[in-house]
Amino acid sequence: MNCSQPSIRPLALLVSMSLPHVVYAQSPQTTEHRIEEIVVTVQQQNQVITEVPVALSAFSNKELEKMNLTDFERIAALTPGFISQQQTDSSASFVIRGVEAAGTGAAAEPTISIFYNGVDSSRSRGAVKELYDIERVEVVKGPQGTLFGRGASTGAIAIHTRKADTQENSGFVESKLGNYNLYSLTGAYNLVVNDELGIRVAGSRRKRDGYVFNLGEPERKLNDDDMAAARFSMRWQPSDSIHLDFIYDHQNDKDYGVSTKSIIAASPGGDTSPFTHAGQNKQLKDQARRQNGYTLLVDWDINQDWRLSSISGHRQLWFDNAFDIDGTTYHAFAGIEYDRQKAISQELRLAYDSQSATITLGASYYRDEASSGFDFVINEQHLLGGFPNVLTPLPELPVAPGVSVPLNEANVSRSYTENKRHSQSVFANLNMDLNAHWILDAGLRYTWDRATLARSGDAFTLDGVGSFVLPNGFLGNSFGEMHSTDADFNMLSPRVALTYRLNEAVNLYAGMSIGKRAGYPDISIQNPTADSVSFSTKEIGNETLTSYEIGAKGQTSNLYFDLALYSYQYDDFQTVSLDITEGAANAGKAKAWGLEGLISAEFTDWLGGFVNYAYIDTEYVNFFDTLNGEPVDLSGNRFRLAPKNTFSVGLDASATLSGSWRWFANTQYAYRSDYFFNNDNLANERQDGFGLLDVRIGLEDDTRGYKIELFAENALDEQWVRDIGNAGKLFGTSTAIRGNPRFYGVRFRAEFF
């Protein structure tokens, strides 16, 4: 790259959320350091970014590669209003403006939509994929149900992979070596078969040893990483007016397990600090996940005014996992879980574009089938012995003078759930110039959902000793009977916004939108007597978020800024219950307000940077939860995983060294103030404010496509935790999941032109 051209792109590049292409306005060749004017399609049409009345942040392919952003936690650290808590490859929580996506169970619907190439992949087990050979990643904040449909009541995340093209043969190969025996290899190649057909293949393989030593199984380390992924893309372009993209992707994850260490009870030879050796039992099985996806995208320019688009998708997922619930080497509590998911979807859009207005009409269909199983293994000798306060198991329970009953060591409560969801929607979006200064944006989506839920329970022991205290298990025993129920949910999601063109560089906007998350039916199993069973059903109603937002966006030749002030109110807020046997909880009313700001600038021909900041104030207005069967008043508490203050700052420098070689250096620092991990806001289940520093330095040759880089992530080796509480909280032994320590290494990259 010529040193007279921009050395960085703004971190907040606003790019397409809906269509497979981004259009960049061409700038004239000049020695003046400028930021490109960018045209986006977030509202299903081409618009200059300053005219889009939606708060969004995005990362282009160039930014993802430059900062080696391959996971959502690091992307979230640089995105105002967005938090990602990635406990494992398949257990992630996404939080946008203080509102968390739903849990991992088969029943609950998501709050935040996750789209891969326009296809809904929102269920949590399949939401996280390796970010390799990516065109762009975007985070759109606020209710986006009109634009993105189901599950976008508080925001959406869209990932667009690089597609095949018919223009040129090109590719790259990249490898990394680092501490904890890291090695990875990633590559892609685009082959032009002819003027009509292009093929792209991409793959990634990564393996890293765990960084937590386990006293219970010292030959293996926890928090390891073992991932393999591949993608095949094909583009057929029979004419200038139509093209079809087919994408197949596969990913396989197989890890030993994650450290869930008790902060209450110390294992023999251990302690309760999240940052020292763990003391967990030998894993009953490794964590394993396999997922496949098929996507077909069709775009047809019928004529100069009309355009038809089709998005077809099919997803499959298989997942197994086991974890130590009590987080010690005592055999007190353990869990085994599995999920199976498959979904198909189809969306059609017809757009009309005139000089003063663009109208988009569409319809979508979504069918999802998910099943999940959970084995809750309880040692009754520890349960009745008083664990975690008393660490010695109680082999027998005295029930009368001279009479004792033996207690078992492994009482299994098995729960199995099936969920089928059929969803159809119709939508319309309008963008209209009212006059030279005012622009109207409006949209409406209506959705019909039908959900069918089935559940069964079982109880048995593994050691042959009958259960005295839990004869029908902890989760209820249906004696082989599967009970089902169904419910219908209808949702209307409107939005409206006005934009005022202050001048050629700055636009102001104000908007209101209503987000809906579909409710779901639920079933609980009770045993009035040891030999009988009863089922109770309930219906979790639609969740409604009403949001108001004002903002300003502007761009000059060397500066881009995006500011937003918002408030919202939730009705029937669905969140995670303190009692895991309850699953989700209805928090009643909740509210929040906040502000977000981002500035990105090119300072000189060799130096650029950015800074962003977000503030949010959250409160449960009326929330009564349960824990161990007792009511808990959480009204007035803050949302979980919602720090009041977050900010990040970054600098990027590069200059010519010799010939076509350049040196470069970039650094980012991201900070979060304190926040709670659970809705009861306990002081010992809280993360203090902390910051993470990433640093990269190296050499690159743009002409020949070579790069060598030294990198350090969490360069200051900050100690932090991803989560505290988890299933152990129910038994008084909350566990902590440690965050990543310092990772460092070297990266090599070669591109083929």
TrEMBL record:
Entry membrane topology: Multi-pass membrane protein
Domain TonB-dependent receptor plug per the UniProt entry, residue ranges: 50-155
Swiss-Prot/TrEMBL keywords: Cell outer membrane, Ion transport, Iron, Iron transport, Membrane, Receptor, Signal, TonB box, Transmembrane, Transmembrane beta strand, Transport
Domain TonB-dependent receptor-like beta-barrel stretches: 246-699
Signal sequence range: 1-25
Pfam families associated with the record: Plug, TonB_dep_Rec_b-barrel
Database matches in InterPro entries: Beta-barrel_TonB, Beta-barrel_TonB_sf, Plug_dom, TonB-dep_rcpt-like
Subcellular location field: Cell outer membrane
Transmembrane segments: none
SUPFAM superfamilies, sorted: Porins
UniProt record similarity statement: Belongs to the TonB-dependent receptor family.
PANTHER family: FERRICHROME IRON RECEPTOR-RELATED, TONB-DEPENDENT OUTER MEMBRANE RECEPTOR
Protein name as catalogued: TonB-dependent receptor
Organism: Bowmanella denitrificans
